[in-house]
Amino acid sequence: MTYSLGAIPSTTPFVLAPMAGATDLPFRLLCKEYGAGLCYSEMIDCHGLVSQNRDCLELLLTNAAEQPVVMQLYGSDPAAMGEAAAILSEHPIAGIDINMGCPMEKVVQTGAGAALMKNPRLAAQIITAVCKNAKKPVSVKIRSGWNQHTITAPEIAKIAEGAGAHAIAIHARTWSDGFTGPIDHEVIRQVMKSVAIPVFANGDITSHEQGVALLQKIGCAGVMIGRAALGAPWIFSGAVNQHPSMAYRIRALLRHLELAEIHLAPEPNLSKIRNHAWKYFRGTTNGGAIRRQIDATTTYPALKALVHTLAERVLQPSA
Q: Does residue 39 carry a catalytic annotation?
């Protein structure tokens, strides 16, 4: 069965959420291999893309194996967002997403990310500019609002649909909530009632079963999984034990390292790779000790040697 995020086809309703510093090409490819129907890139600064900043250009790295992929833009300048959308449209991607949910202070201080949830007029200008200049389907990732006194998600969703957006993804917390507190399913329902375009639910989906239950409970078009997929790409597959063995975890990490070596410069990206690596051992008996060992590595060869040592202990049959 196929699903769709607007005009973008997806083989399952399970989607990898955009995460800064995490959803690079190797991790997206890994999640795709484990069953993600669609993957989102890290957020890309519209000004950096327009000025052809090297760091921004590196975020555009993609290949045929991960298609369809959606790349996410952020910014608070409608003209720059429109120009960046035009540039991004020339790349081999399936769609463009507008970030209106990032709660990071350095982002909201510029009026971008979740700050747009308290500025519907500017949000409308940005979405209109992106949709006008994009040659790809556009989605918008939002939050419930700025705070509990400013729940603007249904209004923003209607604005997005009217401006030409093809889909909405909602993290059902406000900016002031950050990543704590319960997800507000009622706000998701309100957004779904306010628009005819597909709505994807995001926030605190920590297992495949939980994602299926949410799909059945509220009838959204799909679920978008972020932090729970880190170190656990198997979350996208219902055929995999959601609490796998140490051997299974290490095999997944070895594949992650293999993809990182193929598609990244491992040494300059050591910090990012280490940050991925220790998460494969969360919740395990020796997870804390392994994290300390991973954090202590200062070169990529040292990190790789450590993981291979762990693999030899776990994967090799005993004499």
A: no
Structural domains of the chain sorted by starting position, each given as residue range(s) with its CATH number in brackets:
3-236 (3.20.20.70), 246-315 (1.20.120)
Torsion angle defined by CA atoms of residues 92, 95, 96 and 102, in that order, rounded to the nearest 10 degrees: -120
139-180 residue pLDDT tens: 999 999 999 999 999 999 999 999 999 999 999 999 988 888
CB under 8 Å, gap of 24 or more: what pairs does 100-103 form? 100/140, 100/141, 100/142, 100/143, 100/156, 101/141, 101/142, 101/143, 101/171, 102/20, 102/43, 102/74, 103/143, 103/175, 103/178, 103/179
CB burial readout 245-276, b (16+ within 10 A) else e:
ebeebbbbbbbbbebbeebbebeebbebbbbb
Cis peptide before 68 (omega within 30 of 0): yes
What average pLDDT is seen over the chain?
Answer: 93
For 34: left if phi > 0, alpha if psi spans -120 to 50, otherwise beta; the answer is alpha
CA angle 289, 22, 151 (to 5 degrees): 115
Active-site annotation holder among 46, 102, 131, 220: 102
